[in-house]
Amino acid sequence: MDGAALSALAAALGAGLVEAMTTDAWHAVRDRISRIFGRGSAAREGETARRLESARVALRSGDPETLTALKRSLAEEWAHNLEELLVKDPALAQDFESVLKLIRLASGAPDHTVTQTISAQRDAYTAGG
Fold this sequence. Notes:
Blueprint: H1 3-20, H2 26-38, H3 42-61, H4 67-88, H5 93-107
Helix pairs in contact: 1-4, 1-5, 2-3, 2-5
């Protein structure tokens, strides 16, 4: 995976992580991310879990008027953290994708991409204009 792909993966997971903070899947997502950051260290894993819970509390108790900005800020912060970890160990991309899949399934989003190809020729009619 090249640098741009790693950045995109980290950004997607950062955004997904913040969205997962308000879902029933939160504990599973938090635990998986904590294990990834912990890399075998119970202390690092615990610290990551505490930071994630702190972010969740801030999000859930935040002012509704600033909620969008707070979500964006948290997503950027976690995307940065995730990207740093991914740059150090690109093999973690598979773990990141697994967590993203969990988040998508919990949110009801499809676990696949649909591509439509539409072509029109002369005298084609476009509705809804």
